[in-house]
C-alpha cells in the first residue's frame, strides 16, 4: 500500500509543478484520472475489492439514508449515537473505545436514517494509520458525513479531517459529477457531450477510461465541470 501512496504523492507533486494553461489541460486531465483510480485502490481491502471493508466494517446499508459519524478518538461520537438512537455504543474515558462500525437508526418524520458510529481516525488515516482505510471506506458509503469535533480544537480538527478525506477522493459539500456511464460487453466506447465541452475532449475521456481498463462503455457527459471533480462528492456537516 505504501507503493500506492508514493504514486499518489508523485502525481500530486507533478500537478503542483505543472502550470495550468490551455497547453497543459490535457496532461492535467490524465493525471486527475490516474489520481482518482489510485485513491480508489487505496481504499480497497487487502483481499481485493470483493472481500469487503474488513471485520466489523461490513454493515448493510438500510433505511432511507446513511449518516457516518467521523471524528478523532474520544470526541463524543458514541455518546451522540446513544443519545439520538436506541443503540448503546460503548463509551469510556480513553481513546479507541469503538473498534468497529456500530449502526443505529434515527426515526425522524417517518424516515429511518441509519447512523454509523465509526472508530476515531488519526492524522495519516488515508495512508492506513489506525485502521484509517477501513473507517474512510465505510464513510464513503454514506449519504452524509457528520463530523464530530472537540469544541476546543474545532478548526484544527475539521481541517485535518477534510484533508484526510480529500486524500482519498471524498469531496465534501460539492455537487457530484453530472455524468452517465454504462459498461458494456462489446462495441467499444461511445462518448457523447450534451453541450460543447469547456475542459474535456473525447481523447481525454477515452484515455482516462482506458486507464481504468473500461474499453467497452457508453458515456454521456452532461456537464464537463466533472473535470474539476473526478471523484465522489459527499455532503458533510459538523457538530462540536
Automatic annotation (TrEMBL):
This is GTP-binding protein 1. Keywords: GTP-binding, Nucleotide-binding. It comes from Talaromyces marneffei PM1. InterPro entries: DRG, G_OBG, GTP-bd, GTP1-OBG_CS, P-loop_NTPase, Small_GTP-bd. Residues 65-240 form the OBG-type G domain. Gene3D superfamilies: P-loop containing nucleotide triphosphate hydrolases (3.40.50.300). Pfam families: MMR_HSR1. The lineage of its organism: Eukaryota, Fungi, Dikarya, Ascomycota, Pezizomycotina. Transmembrane segments: none annotated. GO terms for molecular function: GTP binding; GTPase activity.
Amino acid at each position: 500500500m505504501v507503493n500506492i501512496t508514493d504514486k499518489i504523492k508523485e502525481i500530486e507533486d507533478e500537478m503542483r509543478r505543472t502550470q495550468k494553461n490551455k497547453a497543459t489541460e490535457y496532461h492535467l486531465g490524465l493525471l486527475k484520472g490516474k489520481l482518482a483510480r489510485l485513491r480508489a485502490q487505496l481504499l480497497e481491502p487487502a483481499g481485493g475489492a470483493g472481500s469487503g471493508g474488513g471485520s466489523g466494517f461490513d454493515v448493510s446499508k438500510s433505511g432511507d439514508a446513511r449518516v457516518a459519524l467521523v471524528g478523532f478518538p474520544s470526541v463524543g461520537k458514541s455518546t451522540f449515537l446513544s443519545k439520538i438512537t436506541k443503540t448503546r455504543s460503548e463509551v469510556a474515558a480513553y481513546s479507541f473505545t469503538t473498534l468497529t462500525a456500530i449502526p443505529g437508526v434515527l426515526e425522524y418524520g417517518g424516515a429511518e436514517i441509519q447512523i454509523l458510529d465509526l472508530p476515531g481516525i488519526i492524522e495519516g488515516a488515508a495512508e492506513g494509520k489506525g485502521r484509517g482505510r477501513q473507517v474512510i471506506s465505510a464513510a464513503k458509503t454514506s449519504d452524509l458525513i457528520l463530523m464530530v469535533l472537540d469544541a476546543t480544537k474545532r478548526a484544527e480538527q475539521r481541517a485535518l479531517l477534510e484533508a484526510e478525506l480529500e486524500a482519498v477522493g471524498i469531496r465534501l459539500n460539492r455537487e457530484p459529477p453530472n455524468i452517465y456511464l454504462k459498461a458494456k460487453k462489446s462495441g467499444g466506447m461511445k462518448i457523447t457531450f450534451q453541450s460543447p465541452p469547456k475542459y474535456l475532449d473525447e481523447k481525454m475521456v477515452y484515455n482516462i477510461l482506458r486507464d481504468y481498463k473500461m474499453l467497452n462503455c457508453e458515456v454521456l457527459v452532461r456537464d464537463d465541470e466533472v473535470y474539476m471533480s473526478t471523484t465522489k462528492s459527499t455532503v458533510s456537516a459538523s457538530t462540536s
